[in-house]
Amino acid sequence: MNEVQTFVFEDLAIRGALVRLEETWRQVLAQHHYPQELRRLLGEGIAATVLLATGLKGHPRVSLQLQGDGRVKLLLVQCSADFEVRGMAQLREAQANDALLGAGRLAVNLDTGENGQQFQGIVPLVGPDLRACLEAYFAQSEQLPTRLYLFSDDGRASGLLLQALPGAGEHADDFETVTALAATIRAVEIAEQPAADLLEQVFADYTLRLFRPKPVTHDCRCTPEYLARIVRMLGTAEIDDLLRERGHVELVCEFCNRAFRYDDAQIEAIFAGQAPSQPLH
Ligand SMILES: [Zn+2]
What we know:
Number of helices: 8
CATH superfamily of the largest domain: Hsp33 domain
Helix content: 25-40%
Oligomer: single chain
Order of helices and strands: EEHHEEEEEHEEHHHEEEHEEH
Bound molecules: zinc ion
């Protein structure tokens, strides 16, 4: 189950989205050895970024970047218009009793790709967890009451978003009721029940309209073309140094943590502008 299900409450100006990731989430984690607290945060970040992407017109690419002075130095998650996700996180050397996030900022970048149109919303880190920071982002940037429920462990990353749409004013009480119901959902339910069953069970007093679920896949985009561009950006002087020192050039993708090696002949071909060959793994 790697999909996102969007829905609306009939008669109420409230929309929702439910994301559940298994294999896609495990692919994000593969090859990394993140400590448990960082795995949980990254899973929540992946789920939240997919949820964020569901409500946006023009299907922009969404990038979520969190930088703080706590134990987490950086969290970066990106989601394409077709719900292809990638993500990475870094911890810093810190004292065990330092806050996980600390002070810092959360930036959400939306890129429609048309005429380079971009929008960036930045909020300070306001709470102990990602959910609080993202709800602050929604309050500031979209100015729509929004609630998030995020769950993550080593096998699954999932989440639910509820948002009061413009015109929901007269249904303010309903939004409170609906979000109170959502708060009763447990991680095991969100992970194991079919989306339609879960939503209809939790919101039994309401009529829901469910849209077609969309698959969410992992794609970290470290293609031979992309890697060749990095080699060219590093320049001949630096690459020659690396070749002299080690006999090869090794690039490590910070998203998937895979290492790619190029030998002399491959490097020469890249600088000659030839089509990049598959690097040696
Ligand atoms: Zn990669």
